[in-house]
C-alpha cells in the first residue's frame, strides 16, 4: 500500500490509496447497508418489486464498497481481479431482478404506492448523498470506477422508483412498478459490462507488463 506521508508534496496521490477515499468508502458502505435492510423489509410490506430491486442494489453496493475498502491495500493485479468480481456480481444482480420481474408479470400484485414513494424519496436522498461523497473520487482504476458506478446507479434507480410510485398511484396499475424494476436491472447489466471490460483490460495490461519484465530480466 502506498503511504500518503511518503509521497512528495508535488506528487498526486492515487485515489485508491488516499485517506479521504477510505473515509468516503466507510461512510458510503454504512449508508448503503442500512438502507438495503430497510428497503428489503419495506419492499415486501409494500409489495413493490421496484423497492425490492432497489434494496438489492443497496445491499450489493454496500458489499462492493466494502470490497473496495479491503482492496485499497492490494496491488494492481489483485485490484483488477476484485473489480472483475464486482462486475460479475452486479451482472448476477441484474439477471436476478429480470427473473423476478418476469415472474411478477404473470403474478401481478398491486404495490402500495404511498409507502413505495415515501421510501423511494428517503432512499433517493441517501443515494444522492453517497454519490456526492464519491463524486470527486470517481476517477481511478477499475475498482474505483466500480464503486462509483454502483453509487451512481443507486441514485438513478431511486429516482426511477419515485417516478414509478407516482405512475402506480395515477394509473392504478402495477405495470409502472414492473417496468421500473426491469429498467433498474438493465442499468445493472450495462454498468456490469463496463466494469468487467475495464477490469479485463487492466488484467491484460498487467500481464503484458509481466511478460516484458521477464524478458528484460537477466538470464
Rg computed from alpha carbons, rounded to a whole number of angstroms = 20 Å
Helix content estimate: over 70%
Number of helical segments with 4 or more residues: 6
Query: Kindly state the mean pLDDT as a whole number?
Result: 76
Give the topology.
Layout: H1 19-46, H2 49-71, H3 76-106, H4 113-134, H5 142-171, H6 175-216
Helix pairs in contact: 1-2, 1-4, 2-3, 2-5, 2-6, 3-5, 3-6, 4-5, 5-6
Report on this model:
The chain is 80% helix and 0% strand. By secondary structure, the chain is mainly α. It has one domain (15-209): Alpha-lytic protease prodomain-like (Up-down Bundle). Helix 1 (19-46) packs antiparallel against helix 2 (49-71) and helix 3 packs parallel to helix 5 (142-171).
What descriptive keywords fit this protein?
219 residues; Alpha-lytic protease prodomain-like; mainly alpha; elongated; disordered N terminus; 6 helices
Concise description?
Helices cover 80% and strands 0% of the residues.
Amino acid at each position: 500500500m502506498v503511504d500518503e506521508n511518503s509521497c512528495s508534496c508535488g506528487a498526486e496521490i492515487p485515489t485508491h490509496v488516499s485517506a479521504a477515499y477510505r473515509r468516503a468508502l466507510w461512510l458510503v458502505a454504512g449508508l448503503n447497508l442500512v438502507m438495503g435492510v430497510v428497503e428489503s423489509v419495506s419492499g415486501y410490506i409494500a409489495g413493490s418489486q421496484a423497492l425490492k430491486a432497489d434494496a438489492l442494489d443497496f445491499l450489493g453496493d454496500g458489499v462492493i464498497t466494502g470490497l473496495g475498502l479491503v482492496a485499497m491495500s492490494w496491488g494492481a493485479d489483485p485490484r483488477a481481479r476484485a473489480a472483475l468480481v464486482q462486475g460479475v456480481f452486479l451482472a448476477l444482480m441484474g439477471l436476478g431482478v429480470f427473473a423476478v420481474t418476469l415472474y411478477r408479470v404473470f403474478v401481478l400484485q398491486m404495490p402500495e404506492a404511498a409507502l413505495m414513494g415515501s421510501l423511494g424519496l428517503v432512499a433517493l436522498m441517501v443515494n444522492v448523498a453517497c454519490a456526492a461523497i464519491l463524486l470527486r473520487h470517481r476517477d481511478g482504476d477499475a475498482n474505483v470506477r466500480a464503486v462509483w458506478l454502483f453509487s451512481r446507479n443507486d441514485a438513478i434507480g431511486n429516482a426511477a422508483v419515485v417516478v414509478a410510485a407516482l405512475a402506480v398511484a395515477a394509473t392504478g396499475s402495477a405495470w409502472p412498478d414492473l417496468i421500473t424494476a426491469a429498467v433498474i436491472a438493465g442499468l445493472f447489466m450495462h454498468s456490469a459490462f463496463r466494469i468487467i471490460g475495464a477490469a479485463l483490460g487492466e488484467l491484460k495490461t498487467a500481464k503484458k507488463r509481466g511478460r516484458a519484465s521477464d524478458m528484460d530480466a537477466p538470464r
